[in-house]
């Protein structure tokens, strides 16, 4: 196996025509990490990956791989392996020939080729398929071959450009698990592009959420999910998306409260990034799993009026091991993940609650986390 390398990007600028697709971007990927670039279509994540691979010329900045400046190096000299969205297999070659093609072209000794092909086929369970042609393989098997072709390169950095997006849901789940196990076995540096938040959350040791060519936040999946840096990250991650309520923050001594026309919530325990201004317009966000449906209260007394509200059920989405209940709360749709699968029907009125320990607060003007 080749050395495991880090990737360091500084002040990167990529221009397509007159448009700056990426401008002044910094990113550090530590050796052995599995970093996922996550974002909507057109956010620049694939462009960033292709610049690391050397497939796109940069307009400014630097790209270092393993401590060496590779900004203008040819792709073949960057010690990287790239897996594309499409399988791009040679249709007339067997699986074994597809795996070994690049090694044969480079004049690698036959014994070394056999060792690498055997190792990759064992990792990816391709042994029984080595004599087959791509047309005789399923979609998942073809993508395994494409990944195996990268593994035999024994590269310093592995790059994946949405490799599972052409597969059905079952195959995506299987290959996602295999990719994670592969990373654990290889200990390799991997950078993976996807728009699928489930892939990002399950695969990444760290994830970078992108929008408009800018990294909005980078951190472990748990950190980014629990403490989003801004409203875009808060609403992009999560299914259903984070519930949002517009209101104002008001202070009275040590007490801080979030108030709307209908809600008065004590948020004094909230971990503010900076002290909030007095009477600040802000947005309260709460994840659906932190909205508690309480069928027993049904709007009755005996509970903290600061946290107990009432809404009418507009929709129930059964999800197997849980259900998502949508409530109309003064014209705002509030989603709650109900693990108990409480019997509900559209039109039912239920109490719901959340507390200051499980919320996010954002500046209304900038969208930044408070």
UniProtKB/TrEMBL annotation:
This is Carbohydrate ABC transporter ATP-binding protein, CUT1 family. Gene3D superfamilies: 2.40.50.100, Nucleic acid-binding proteins (2.40.50.140), P-loop containing nucleotide triphosphate hydrolases (3.40.50.300). Keywords: ATP-binding, Cell inner membrane, Cell membrane, Membrane, Nucleotide-binding, Transport. GO terms for cellular component: ATP-binding cassette (ABC) transporter complex, substrate-binding subunit-containing. PROSITE patterns: ABC_TRANSPORTER_1, ABC_TRANSPORTER_2. Residues 7-237 form the ABC transporter domain. It holds the Pfam family TOBE_2. One of its GO terms (biological process) is carbohydrate transport. It comes from Paraburkholderia megapolitana. InterPro entries: AAA+_ATPase, ABC_transporter-like_ATP-bd, ABC_transporter-like_CS, ABC_transpr_MalK-like, ABC_transpr_MalK/UgpC-like, Mo/tungstate-bd_C_term_dom, NA-bd_OB-fold, P-loop_NTPase. GO terms for molecular function: ABC-type transporter activity; ATP binding; ATP hydrolysis activity. It comes from the Bacteria.
């Amino acid at each position: 196996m080749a050395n495991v390398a880090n990737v360091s990007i500084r002040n990167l600028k990529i221009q397509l025509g007159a448009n700056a697709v990426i401008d002044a971007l910094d990113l550090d990927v530590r050796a052995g990490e599995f970093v996922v670039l996550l974002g909507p279509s057109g956010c620049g994540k694939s462009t960033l990956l292709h610049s690391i691979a050397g497939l796109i010329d940069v307009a400014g900045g630097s790209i270092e791989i393993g401590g060496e400046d590779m900004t203008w190096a040819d792709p073949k000299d960057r010690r990287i392996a790239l897996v594309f969205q499409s399988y791009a297999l040679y249709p007339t070659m067997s699986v074994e020939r597809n795996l070994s093609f690049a090694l044969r072209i480079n004049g690698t000794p036959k014994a070394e080729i056999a060792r690498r092909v055997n190792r990759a086929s064992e990792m990816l369970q391709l042994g029984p398929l080595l004599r087959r042609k791509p047309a005789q393989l399923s979609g998942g098997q073809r993508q395994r071959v494409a990944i195996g072709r990268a593994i035999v390169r024994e590269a310093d950095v592995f790059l994946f450009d949405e490799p599972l997006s052409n597969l059905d849901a079952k195959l995506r789940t299987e290959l996602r698990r295999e990719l994670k196990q592969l990373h654990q076995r290889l200990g390799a540096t991997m950078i993976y592009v996807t728009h699928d938040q489930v892939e990002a959350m399950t695969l990444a040791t760290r994830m970078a959420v992108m929008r408009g060519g800018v990294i909005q936040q980078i951190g472990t999946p748990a950190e980014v999910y629990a403490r989003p840096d801004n409203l875009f990250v808060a609403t992009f991650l999560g299914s259903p998306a984070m519930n949002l309520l517009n209101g104002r923050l008001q202070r009275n001594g040590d007490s801080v409260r979030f108030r709307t026309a209908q809600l008065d919530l004590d948020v004094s325990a909230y971990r503010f990034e900076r002290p909030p201004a007095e009477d600040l317009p802000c947005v309260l966000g709460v994840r659906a799993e932190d909205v508690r449906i309480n069928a027993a209260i049904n709007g009755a007394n005996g509970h903290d009026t600061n946290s107990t509200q009432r809404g009418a059920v507009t929709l129930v989405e059964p999800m197997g091991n849980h259900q998502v209940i949508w409530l109309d709360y003064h014209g705002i749709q509030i989603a709650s993940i109900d693990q108990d699968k409480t019997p509900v029907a559209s039109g039912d009125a239920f109490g719901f609650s959340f507390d200051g320990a499980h919320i996010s607060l954002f500046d209304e003007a900038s969208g930044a986390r408070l």
